[in-house]
Amino acid sequence: MPEVTLTIKHEAGLHARPGALFVKTAKQFESDITVVFTDKQANAKSILSLLSLGVEKGSVITIRTEGEDAGAAVNALKALVESNFGEGE
């Protein structure tokens, strides 16, 4: 079960456009992908589930993946978050 812990640097957190990009990226994979924030978990393929976490700028999340393409999924989502959702630093 590959996982990675990351800090969200985007001004909007995991809301609006960054959240939509996160979900779009997650949906490209067959694996189950879960985002953990504080004591809550969300399905990374559901925008409503993801938004319910309330992830803001500076929040630390853990992305957990399980399935055949789990490694590729966690790497793609890590790259997305680290690129600040395509907006650079």
Structure description:
- Strand 2 (32-37) and strand 3 (40-43) form a beta hairpin.
- This protein has a 4-stranded antiparallel β-sheet.
- The chain is α+β, with helices and mostly antiparallel strands and 89 residues long.
- The model has no long low-confidence stretch (mean pLDDT 95).
- Helices cover 33% and strands 25% of the residues.
- The protein has 3 helices and 4 strands, in the order E-H-E-E-H-E-H.
- The chain is globular, with a radius of gyration of 11 Å.
Keywords:
89 residues; alpha+beta; Histidine-containing Protein, Chain: A; four-stranded antiparallel sheet; 3 helices; 33% helix; globular
Q: What is the count of structural domains?
A: 1
The amount of beta strand, in percent, is 15-25%
CATH class: Alpha Beta
CATH fold naming: Histidine-containing Protein, Chain: A
Q: What Rg do the Cα atoms give?
A: 11 Å
Mean pLDDT: 95
Low-confidence stretches: none
Number of helices: 3
Element string (H = helix, E = strand): EHEEHEH
Q: How many DSSP E strands?
A: 4
Helix content: 25-40%
How would a crystallographer describe the biggest sheet? Answer: 4 strands, antiparallel
> What sort of overall outline do the alpha carbons produce when their principal axes are compared?
globular
Classified in CATH, the superfamily is HPr-like
Please name the CATH architecture.
Answer: 2-Layer Sandwich
Measured between the Cα atoms of the first and last residue, the distance is 29 Å
Structural class: alpha+beta
Task: Strand order, main sheet: write it out.
Answer: 1-4-2-3
Q: Which helices and strands appear, and what pairs or packs with what?
A:
Blueprint lengths: L2 E5 L8 H11 L5 E6 L2 E4 L3 H5 L8 E7 L3 H13 L7
Antiparallel strand pairs: 1-4, 2-3, 2-4
